From TrEMBL, chain A:
One of its GO terms (biological process) is peptide transport. This is Peptide ABC transporter substrate-binding protein. Pfam families: SBP_bac_5. GO terms for cellular component: ATP-binding cassette (ABC) transporter complex; periplasmic space. It comes from the Bacteria. InterPro entries: Peptide/Ni-bd (IPR030678), SBP_5 (IPR039424), SBP_5_dom (IPR000914), WW_dom (IPR001202). Residues 439-476 form the WW domain.
UniProtKB/TrEMBL annotation, chain B:
It is a multi-pass membrane protein. Belongs to the binding-protein-dependent transport system permease family. This is Peptide ABC transporter permease. The keyword Transmembrane helix applies. InterPro entries: BP-dependent_transpt_permease, MetI-like, MetI-like_sf, OppC_N. Pfam families: BPD_transp_1, OppC_N. PANTHER family: ABC TRANSPORTER PERMEASE PROTEIN (PTHR43386:SF6), OLIGOPEPTIDE TRANSPORT SYSTEM PERMEASE PROTEIN APPC (PTHR43386). It is found in: Cell membrane. SUPFAM superfamilies: MetI-like. Residues 124-314 form the ABC transmembrane type-1 domain. GO terms for biological process: transmembrane transport.
């Protein structure tokens, strides 16, 4: 599973976070070791939860985790390819039993050594039902997960039987099925190592997380800002090229943009839709727009019978066909989004599983057919679609209004669809998590790592970690299991695409558009880039 | 006619003396008519009340004429918006987003391709409805509570005064954000209810003060001496003489309620789409100010003119009803 960062529900648009940022991989060492001491400020939103790595599945928290943690693997900030980072090697003969060797010389920012135990204990913590971590599901392939995190009842074990520490720098992983992509998932923040203080003084750790990344958290005031300082003794090649980052909380991306223009903010990684027409003249080449592994969809509440009854898939398909994606991406987003024709992302490449047109006519604007399908499916549950979204990032209000107008025009009912804004991303995620919503909701998915599996399994597999609408389909689950067991990558991809067709036929979620990462920065900064997850590569940024 | 206000007292005093000698019920009734038209007996015998005086003043006041015409127009388009705007305010064509004026759309189109002219016209209904109903609610609740407290005094009066103090301490916008954010109904009623809840103490204080003043007048004492009931005294003698300040303040407040509705809708806690409100439109258009300023300026201008019209009307009414302030 996915590993990697789960996609965090992308806050939206653009921005989402995550990812492996930084890595420098190939380029990381290029700038020489931290000469700059300048601190930059960057736009941000409060994370939903305290920053436990296994409990963070949204982009804003993920952004920080990617600055303060480094895992076994790291995703190249240019290509997204997983490369060994803390791992010296991850070996397997059968795609089911893995031997992980951890590099020597890594420590946490409090001086404690990073050992095999740092990983194994962290994974056991993340998997344990008792700790109720949102990303526990990512450990589901490790043998013994069903004992540690049973679907029902109390757990009968505290640790995963599939994890064994061999020596200080070696541990083994036994999976409960073959999963050839497993090593590539290990760059996801949920698999980060944790220091002892995480267990011995949990409250202190939550207040000021201690990690092993190029930055260390200095202070955090909810609703205001988080100060991260460069960790000078960071042993990796991707040392921070600046003195630190101040993440400033904004509840409106227009405000962030205005602050950027006024010189009060150095980096805004969420350009408001209303400014897309001006951003090139405002910022010149200080505006960057790069493809990112983000897809915006509308998810549905399958825990609500009205949306889960037979025939409802016709309503959903009808709604999908009532949305004029071409027009919205052009008029609202100035073509910085591309209409979606499948459920993945072009950044995967066709070899990686992206398949343009897989959605077929179900994603084509066809108002007449849309109206017919909605009618055949029994009409819109409750007579009105309320699309819930968070209003603080991503210019969601603009596109949700446009989607609703498109649906209203297609169905010939000016009140068929209405937007339902929630003030902040964190609150929005909470409401989704509590299954409070009774209608479709915005679901932006930022990949955790560039595998097709990550666009499907965490979102649509029964009880998967980010399957917020609780969609469940045995055919889909079967195909995903088969795909994961494939050792031939091409066959795995084609099996995943079959699973994707199930998603299409049931219209489990309506794909809207593929998103680019876009950001603007001040004249103080240079070497600013977004990684394929659309997160700024903070450690490479130079100030002044 | 500066002497006019004194007329009633004289009348009351005179009849009061007469009444003291003859407490016949019929006599009392005629007496009450005195105060009923206290402002009513003109020197030339033509009945001239405070109200007709005020009306005469107002008719000559250009500020009143202009604001009244604006308000009449607003009321008209609130009742029959389709008379001057074609199409539905909810029909938007994204292909025209941010376009300037065109046929049938003299104000251009907003960021969603909605017709700004149509939406601005339809938005008047919301504003006028909220303003008028909130004012009525506030005036009724405030004057009844304040009037009773002022008339009877004692413990209820003290309690009410403290309660109004508490309500005065609630910041309006903050209160709106807190109270209205939990409301899911998308009608004007929660907004009106909120305004009444926070608006009545102002009126109640004014009503209380003016009732206390009025009840000390001799004609009230006389009516009491003649055995009139509290209800009768309140309704026949006090209310007509205490209501003027309430009307003045309520008229001015009407404009502020309209502005408050727009503020709350702007903040996302008042009315919500698909309701049509100037506040919603202003909020939606503000990010586009650089590329489509017309979408922001027209609803803002309509709001400003409407609020101004009601406040000027209130001013004119105050001048007419309360000559002492002139």
């Amino acid at each position: 599973m996915g590993g990697v960062t789960h996609a965090r529900w992308a806050a939206g648009a653009v921005v989402v976070a995550l990812a492996a940022t930084g890595c420098g991989g190939g380029s990381g060492g290029g700038y020489g070791g931290g000469s700059g001491d300048g601190v930059l400020s960057s736009s941000w939103g409060d994370p939903q939860n305290p920053l436990e790595p296994a409990n963070t599945n949204e982009v804003q928290g993920g952004k920080v985790l990617d600055m303060i943690f480094r895992g076994l693997k790291k995703y190249d900030p240019r290509t997204g390819k997983a490369q060994d980072w803390l791992a010296r090697s991850i070996d397997t003969k059968d795609s089911q039993n893995f031997t992980v060797r951890v590099k020597d010389g890594w420590t946490f920012s409090n001086g404690e050594k990073v050992t095999a135990r740092s990983f194994v204990d962290a994974w056991n913590y993340g998997a344990s039902l008792r700790n109720n971590q949102k990303n526990a599901y990512f450990f589901g392939y490790i043998d013994g997960y069903d004992k540690v995190h049973p679907a029902g009842g109390a757990q009968s074990a505290d640790t995963l039987s599939g994890l064994k520490v061999v020596d200080d720098h070696t541990f083994t992983v036994r999976l409960n099925q073959k999963f050839s992509g497993f090593p590539d998932t290990l760059g996801y923040a949920a698999f980060a190592p944790l220091p002892r203080i995480f267990y011995t003084d949990h409250a202190a750790w939550l207040k000021r997380p201690v990690g092993n990344g190029p930055y260390a958290v200095e202070s955090y005031t909810r609703g205001s800002q988080m100060n991260l300082r460069k960790w000078d003794a960071y042993p990796g090649a991707d040392k921070a090229q600046n003195g630190g980052v101040t993440l400033k909380v904004y509840t409106d991306n227009n405000t962030a943009y205005t602050d950027l223009m006024a010189g009060n903010l150095d980096l805004a990684d969420d350009i408001p839709a209303a400014q897309l027409k001006n951003v090139r003249s405002d910022l010149g080449d200080r505006y960057i727009n790069t493809p990112a592994g983000i897809i915006q969809t509308l998810a549905f509440p399958y825990y609500d019978k009205a949306w889960n009854k037979p025939g409802a898939e016709k309503v959903r398909t009808g709604l999908s066909m009532a949305i004029n994606r071409e027009q919205i991406t052009e008029r609202i987003f100035d073509r910085t989004r591309t209409p979606a024709t499948d459920w993945t992302s072009p950044v995967l490449g066709t070899a990686g599983g992206f398949k343009a047109g897989l959605c077929g006519p179900a994603c084509q604007y066809d108002p007449a057919r849309a109206k017919k399908l909605v009618k055949e499916g029994g009409g819109i549950p409750g007579g009105q679609v309320r699309i819930t979204y968070n209003a603080d990032t991503g210019s969601h209000r603009e596109w949700v209004d446009a989607v609703c107008n498109s649906i209203n025009n297609a169905l010939g009912d000016s009140r068929a669809c209405v937007g339902n804004p929630v003030g902040t991303f964190a609150d929005y995620r909470n409401r989704i998590g509590q299954h409070e919503l009774r209608g479709p909701f915005r679901a932006g998915w930022q990949m955790d790592y560039p595998l097709i599996q990550n666009f499907l399994q965490p979102l649509y597999y029964t009880n998967a970690s980010s399957n917020d609408g609780k969609w469940s389909d045995p055919d889909f689950d079967d195909l995903v299991d088969q795909a994961n067991a494939q050792t031939d990558p091409a066959k795995a991809v084609s099996t995943f695409q079959k699973a994707e067709e199930v998603v299409r036929d049931k219209m489990a979620a309506i794909p809207l558009w593929y998103q680019n990462g876009s950001a603007g920065y001040s004249e103080r900064l240079s070497h600013v880039a977004l990684n394929p997850f659309s997160v700024p590569v903070y450690n490479e940024i130079k100030v002044g | 006619m500066p002497e006019q206000p004194y007329e009633p007292e004289r009348a009351v005093a005179g009849t009061g003396m007469g009444g003291a000698m003859d407490l016949g019920a019929s006599e009392a009734v005629t007496l009450e008519q005195g105060p009923g038209g206290p402002e009513g007996t003109g020197p030339v015998g033509r009945p001239r009340s405070l109200w007709s005086d005020a009306w005469r003043d107002l008719r000559r006041n250009p500020v009143f004429i202009v604001s009244a015409l604006v308000i009449l127009f607003l009321v008209f388009i609130s009742l029959w918006p389709s008379a001057i705007a074609s199409g539905s305010p909810l029909t938007c064509d994204l292909a025209k987003a941010q376009d300037g004026p065109g046929p049938g759309a003299p104000f251009g189109y907003d960021g969603q391709g909605c017709n700004v002219y149509t939406r601005t016209v339809y938005g008047a209904r919301t504003s006028v409805t909220v303003g008028v109903l909130a004012t009525l609610g506030v005036a009724l609740l405030g004057s009844v509570l304040g009037g009773l407290a002022g008339y009877f005094g004692g413990l209820p009066d003290s309690v009410l005064s403290r309660v109004t103090d508490i309500f005065f301490a609630i910041p309006v916008v903050l209160g709106g954000l807190v109270l209205l954010s939990v409301v899911t109904s998308n009608t004007v009623w929660p907004v009106i209810g909120f305004m009444v809840l926070l608006g009545w103490p102002q009126i109640s204080r004014i009503a209380r003060g003016s009732v206390i003043t009025a009840k000390q007048n001799d004609y009230v004492q006389a009516a009491r001496a003649l055995g009139a009931s509290d209800a009768r005294i309140l309704l026949r003698h006090i209310a007509p003489n205490a209501v003027a300040p309430v009307i003045v303040v309520a008229t001015i407040a009407l404009g502020t309620y309209i502005a408050l509705e727009a503020t709350l809708s702007y903040l996302g806690v008042g009315l919500k789409p698909p309701s049509v409100s100037w506040g919603i439109d202003i909020s939606a258009a503000s990010p586009y100010i650089r590329n489509a300023p017309h979408a922001l300026l027209w609803p803002s201008g309509a709001l400003a003119i409407t609020v101004l019209a009601f406040i000027m009307l209130g001013d004119a009414v105050r001048d007419a009803l309360d000559p002492k302030l002139r």
